[in-house]
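Most newcomers find our protein records easier to grasp once they have seen one. Sequence and backbone structure share a record, each on its own labelled line. To make this concrete, we reproduce a full record directly below:
***
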Amino acid sequence: MKTLTILSGKGGVGKSTLAASIAVIFGRDNKLVAVDCDVDAPNLALVMGIKDQDFDSWERIRTNEKAYLVPEKCKGLKYCVNACNFSAISWDQEQGLPEINEFLCVGCGACIVACHENAINFKKVENAKVGVGYTDYGFPIVTGHLDIGESGSGKVVNAVRDKADEVARDIQADIMLIDSAAGIGCPVIASIRGSDYVLVVTEPTPVAFSDLKRALEIVDHFDIPAGIVINRWDINEDFTNIIVDFSKNNKIPVLGMIPYDKRFLDSLVNLKPAVVFEPGLEKFFTEILDNIIVL
């Protein structure tokens, strides 16, 4: 099985739109599993026309830990209060004990290190859900939702990847297509691990170009081959040329350039992949796939 991951340093450049259409094209002749690893704001399923209630199953998971107090061991030294950089631990004057706010605790463990009496421990908490749904285009999709206010999105992505591996084995998938989160944080690192190829989407603006370069640094660190897609290339042709020159100088191929077209927006409004909503757009995506040699 080959794994293709689609990411973007900057959000809003068309990553999920691209992922949905590529999944549909790949899914015609291959056994494919699509994976949405943007667990903070997943929307690949929506682009495919699938809502939460349409998923066959949701599984609650525990990938995060939070601190809790063992009162009988506490000597009231307040080291934990001073150690917490997230203001999750306050001092309860009436009880004479520290009070841990579970909504502010991120499970960093500083309080456990600071406590000389072993009066604070960790406990696993439910912080997300993972689900498997089925598209109208012949392939399953795996996604995860981090609970509002919870942390640990990188670990949730790992759980989503594990579930996707399980689904891929069941269907003997040829291709796993991953829609990563934007940015360069833990969810992105968890998304690209083990990938055979990374497709980085950008647009011709200074902000997107800056974020593109940072995203490529992450990909290069893991020594994964990558290519660039310039979306809405015609909104700023001069800056498109800057990105093309950058790609040539760094020997990173430009796999394709997609023009601005209102039909892409219309496809999102109608919850359909662009190549399904408007077949005339398919040529842009097939050109991109034709240029990915390793797949």
User: Anything to note?
Assistant: The chain has two domains: 2-62+128-290, 64-125.
